[in-house]
Amino acid sequence: MQTATFLRTSCAVLALGALAACSSTPPPVDQLAVSRSTVNRVGAEANVVANAPVELQRARDKVAMAEKAMNDKNYDMARRFAAEAEADARVAETKADAANNANTLQQVQTSIRGLQTEIDRRAPVVAPVPPAPGAMAAPRAMPAPAAPMAPPASSAPPAPMAAPMTPAAPMAPVR
Prior knowledge:
This protein is an all-alpha fold. It has a domain at 27-121: Up-down Bundle (Substrate Binding Domain Of Dnak, Chain:A, Domain 2). 63% of the residues lie in helices and 0% in strands. The chain contains five helices and no strands. The chain has helices at 2-23, 29-43, 46-51, 53-71, 75-122. The longest helix has 48 residues, at 75-122. The protein is elongated, with a radius of gyration of 46 Å.
């Protein structure tokens, strides 16, 4: 009898413990505070308001939904909405930074084009120089070397031969 009562009591305690563990999700107070702070910080930046208003409004809406879920004690939904609100605020901030960077790039490219125009305007115009009178415009092709001569039919040993000379084309003066 005592064993049956002990088993019933143990089962009841375990069931209540399991039920309490499932329903005791702590409220995401810290996460909601971080999300709210991020949305407020990003929303205070003028370039975000100008360049990413849709993303910023989406983040604000999700903070409001997280607060409502927190009041309804739906802590899982509150945690999810808070995380999404923070992510949307960061997306808005990144989109605004990208728009600002694109604007800066456009300004730099315009400045570079202006500087290139100024360089082109100030550079002296170089006209091709005509060749001097009497100078050749291009070197001539070299003639083929002459065929070697046959040695005389005498009994004396042949004299050593020098390397054949080929006439070089005159070079045009370098300017």
